[in-house]
Cobalamin biosynthesis protein CobD (Caldimonas brevitalea), 312 residues
Amino acid sequence: MLFDLYLSLADREWAWALLLGVAADVLLGEPRRWHPLVGFGRVAAGVEARLNRARRWQGVLAVGLMLALPLALLSLLRSRLPGGQWLVDGVLLYFALGARSLHEHVRPVGQALQAGDLAAARAAVQRVVSRDCGSLDAAGVAGAAVESTLENGNDAVFGTLFWFAVGGGAGALLYRLANTLDAMWGYRTERLRAFGWAAARLDDGLNWLPARLTALSYAGLGYTKLALWCWRHQAPRWDSPNAGPVMAAGAGALGLKLGGPASYHGRVEQRPVLGAGRLPAAGDIGRALALVASVLLLWLVVLTVLHAGLTR
């Protein structure tokens, strides 16, 4: 009965595509082999090696090329499958989502901490963050895992769902491709500072509204008043215009203190403090993952209702 109600609320093809993408991600996780984003990343590395001559226009050209070809191929595929476009959209959403992958990468950190194995916890969290984790204490490891969970909740889950709602499979694809290019090229190193500018700005633009909707969702399902205070007063001090609201609101929603100094490639960065309350512990990693899962359910309901209202 609930399933029939769901299909009656939303356009059936859109509803089937959404269900297929989310269910496949939750049940199957990321493909172990031949993941399209992994292949895209390898191509991006080759393009950067050939085109990067420390000029912004070269980065703009590279981003255009890297996005135009996959979207052109998608358009051709959809034109050849006029009755199966919902299936294409659902598969694209599956490839773009990373909800189960986020759990699979972060949960071992909490399990190692709860078992008292700090070395294993450091190794596990090093696989999901770019900071130096070799000297972190238990609170530092837990904090890094919680920060990664909150930020990647937006990047790998909610930003993807937002752009799927806006543009179907093509929207989800465009968002994750831009996100991948930013992750590879958007660093302020001497090599990538100019070349990666376009990828970073595009990712900032695509993430602006989803990040704030994610922050609002975190706040609504946690300590709301504290989360909104942290968002307002702490997020503007964070380097990233989108990660700041997400992580500040998420930290406040959980009642935790995140941020602070962190070492990257041997250099310590004095990051602002986000959130308020106590330092994170092993059990807070599970709380952060539960928050992301709760927001995912909320978004599925809200997106379905909004889509129903807009398509009637």
Residues 2-311 form one domain.
